[in-house]
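Each record in this resource describes a single protein on a pair of labelled lines. With that in mind, the following record should read easily:

===
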Amino acid sequence: MSRQVLSSEKIIAQAITLITADQMPTFSNIARALGTRSQALYSYYPNQDALRAAVFLHGVTELTEVLKTELFGLSGRTAILRFTQVCRTLGLKNIRLTRFILTTPRHLQEGTATTAVVALNDLLMQLCAVYSTNQADQIVIARTLRNLIVGEVINVGAGWFHNTAVPASTSFDRMIAQYLDMLGNY
């Protein structure tokens, strides 16, 4: 086995590669792919849960950074529509990774990952504030949008929406638009 210089980034990248290939990102599988022994990974991650939390953090941070770029200069309805489209597109781009992230248990989202989740949530809440100044209303709006996004990604990723009479992306955009129309024109 050739010696390989490891890093957290290489380990996470390999874990994502395995997830994308529908393989379990175990220490053994990652080490084999990186040409090292699984014991070498313990210097970076004390256990499988810590690695899963790192993959979760990577995914949420990447999504937030893309959203910040995509939403720059946008506001109101246009920003919310773009937010939902970007989340849908990225979620479907690597459905296996998206499922892995979405099913990461809450207790693994603590620490730095909590900060990343809060940043993503704050971004969405800022967008929802245009529809209501009431925090409870903003929370419901944000939850509804997240439910529509997650439902879309899971259903399209599973192949449920295959009727070409109305493409999935078109129906998604229409659902979001109809929901925003119910909230009012902004």
